[in-house]
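Postdoc handover notes: sequence design on the structure in folder B. Input tokens:
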């Protein structure tokens, strides 16, 4: 029996709201698992210092290349622009336990 392999075009771009109200952007082909990793201190260094409160998916069903390009675009944005993206993605929120 083999483990399920995620689809090549099933990458998501997400934002995480941290305890200091900053927004962290990342990509994953398993966003729920990735959020759990961030919550458990096994994600990015940024979220180990600033604990995650919630995650919202901005885009999904992307190729890895497209997701990486979108992540770079978002990381270059000003905090106010990221806040607008956060507001627009409200329906896809995953909250910390």
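Designed sequence:
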């Amino acid at each position: 029996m083999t483990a399920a392999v995620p689809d090549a075009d099933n990458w998501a771009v997400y934002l995480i709201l941290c305890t200091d109200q900053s927004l962290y952007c990342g990509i994953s082909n398993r966003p729920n698992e990735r959020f759990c990793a961030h919550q458990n201190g096994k994600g990015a260094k940024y979220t180990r210092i600033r604990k995650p409160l919630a995650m919202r998916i901005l885009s999904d069903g992307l190729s890895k290349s497209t997701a990486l390009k979108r992540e770079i675009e978002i990381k270059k944005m000003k905090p106010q622009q990221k806040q607008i993206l956060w507001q627009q993605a409200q329906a896809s929120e995953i909250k910390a336990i």
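Context for whoever picks this up: The longest strand covers residues 52-62. Don't rerun without checking with the PI first.
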